[in-house]
TrEMBL record, chains A, B:
It holds the Pfam family LacI. Residues 1-15 have a biased composition (Low complexity). CDD domains: HTH_LacI (cd01392), PBP1_LacI-like (cd06279). Its EC number is 5.1.1.1. Keywords: DNA-binding, Isomerase, Transcription, Transcription regulation. Transmembrane segments: none annotated. PANTHER family: LACI-RELATED TRANSCRIPTIONAL REPRESSOR (PTHR30146), TRANSCRIPTIONAL REGULATORY PROTEIN (PTHR30146:SF138). It is an enzyme of class 5 (isomerase). Residues 1-28 are annotated as: Disordered. The keyword Metal-binding does not apply. It comes from Actinoplanes octamycinicus. One of its GO terms (molecular function) is transcription cis-regulatory region binding. This is Alanine racemase.
Amino acid sequence: MPPRKPSSASKAPARTFKTKPGKPTSTDVAAAAGVSRSAVSFAFNNPQRISTATRERILAVAEELGYTPNTLGRMLQAGTTNSIGVLLPQGLAQILENPYYSRFLMGAGQVCDREGYTLLLTPPLQDSVLKAIPYAAVDGFIVCGLEIDRGEVAELDRRGIPFVLIDSDRHEGAPHVEVDDRGGARDVARYLLELGHRRLAVLSIGPRPAADPGHRGPLARRLAGITDALAEVGLTLDDVRVAEVPVTRADGYKATRELMSGEPPSAILALSDVLAYGAVDALQDLGVAVPDEVSVTGFDDLAESAWFRPRLTTVRQPIVTKGRIAADFLISAIRGEDQHPHQMLGTSLIVRDSATNPA
Amino acid sequence: MPPRKPSSASKAPARTFKTKPGKPTSTDVAAAAGVSRSAVSFAFNNPQRISTATRERILAVAEELGYTPNTLGRMLQAGTTNSIGVLLPQGLAQILENPYYSRFLMGAGQVCDREGYTLLLTPPLQDSVLKAIPYAAVDGFIVCGLEIDRGEVAELDRRGIPFVLIDSDRHEGAPHVEVDDRGGARDVARYLLELGHRRLAVLSIGPRPAADPGHRGPLARRLAGITDALAEVGLTLDDVRVAEVPVTRADGYKATRELMSGEPPSAILALSDVLAYGAVDALQDLGVAVPDEVSVTGFDDLAESAWFRPRLTTVRQPIVTKGRIAADFLISAIRGEDQHPHQMLGTSLIVRDSATNPA
DNA sequence: CTGAAAGCGCTTACAG
DNA sequence: CTGAAAGCGCTTACAG
């Protein structure tokens, strides 16, 4: 007998005698059903391309072997993951503790639901947003809170992966959705100043990176808005105290206690509702009446701010809408429909009960 | 001149003359740097295996071409994604609107942060949890709220993908973390009964699937707990009104208004805090005093329940801990360390201000 | 209606 | 120190 072609002769048995099959592959099913791998693929994805009988047989064998097409193999071949990544500025625990992000993700989630995408939450890897990028198998990214760009935008560009920027510094030509942070902050600062407050304290979000020359993110814009309002009454940012605080209720609390231990302000302007809650907690614990002795304002207008006591005076930004538009933009970019969309969203001052005239 | 081997001769030029390179691959870099693809790979992942000079050259060429190793190709080869999937029972919008899930995800997120995993939120595809499974590129799943198994567990098993069950019906041999739902519900029902309430209404979570014989999930356990308590005073579940409501504040509101339009209960036992908030909203709008005219209790003890007015009497379950343990179990399973862990978590009755003796 | 081949990009033994 | 080959699993033109 002539020897069979060595390549096939040496390989087939090796496969056949595998002890533990591990996960069966399409090759295994093809062998067991006596068909080619293409036939197996067709049985799953393109039924009309093979006869019903063949298909049934293949499916039966697959069932018996416990075969199921490998997700990664499929994605590599398709070049698509049906997943949207959210590139986050902090760890998952911090993000998910923050109601702001829940709202934002909810907006993005609405779009994912509609379009059949999954949502990959991608926190920094070893404290680096940049390092996290190569480990996310996604069709595109929503990039959040990139106050300062450490090469993320360039990396995304060179990967040719679509992205949209949120709560970030602007980049020419990059899709983004912005909020009128400057206008919102100006409005609330002006409101407080018109009420007669002059001893203002600002609870800002931080800590900001040490060397930060080109800083032009939302935070900088809010501070600029406050500066605008101060200028109208002949003051500058140097005339107010600014504390930089991580965005948690507990940190707002702590910072406020420190603030009150010095010369107490007549009003605290927090750059986030969550921080404002903490400020009110601290003032209440100190026996300081809000707003009668000290006024407090927030930024965001989270749902709970209307239920909070005193009901929080704050700046509303359309968080859910922002998430929805970001996801919509991203999907357009993924589909190649619209390459550089941007949108500016307005804010509005919501006057409730937590601020009044100074005592 | 002898012709070069046809295979290489016919291919190399084709690659070389590509007009738009698309994303460059390792092959492109290898060609441009005059090395093999392995060398390119080594330059990125195994620097010590090649000379410094070669490495630098490769990296320079890669930089120039804008090459970056493809994530999916890498994952397929590595057989690992560094991602944990959360298989969800509802759309992303609903999930992220629910503070319960935010807390749960926060717990899971703590573990992801520590272990360097991303978190893939996987909602049902075309209303099917089962259909969503093949589209998630993950190392394992946390399966949530699988009140009734429609083949998901079998599918996960056949895929050989690790998973842990949460808020779900039990499955022999499957890792899971449970909460003592029955005990918790019994406690709060007993509390209400001891207060003297007999006209009870239950705001349950639903709608439950029509045909549901083998139903033994957390909901069934909570109902069983209520039944236990009722039995102690000679009542059955038929003696109370049970409304099945989707878990949103608005739905709790609506259901309560309907409840009150009939013969009003003296106490409303909600199987979720969110539903309890909605109930209180409705009662307040109807001018019914809580708890003086109608008592209301919740289940979960979300953070906001302590801030809610009246402060909510409820059953505490350790949500963040549940998320953390689920993720820990999953990662153990992924690493093959512990194959079938389970854990039962206790509940406790938190007595606050929203329930009192019947009028 | 079906199969052999090429290809999606990558990495890792295995030889030299 | 480096390269040719095999393989991670899959799918889709292209021939028959």
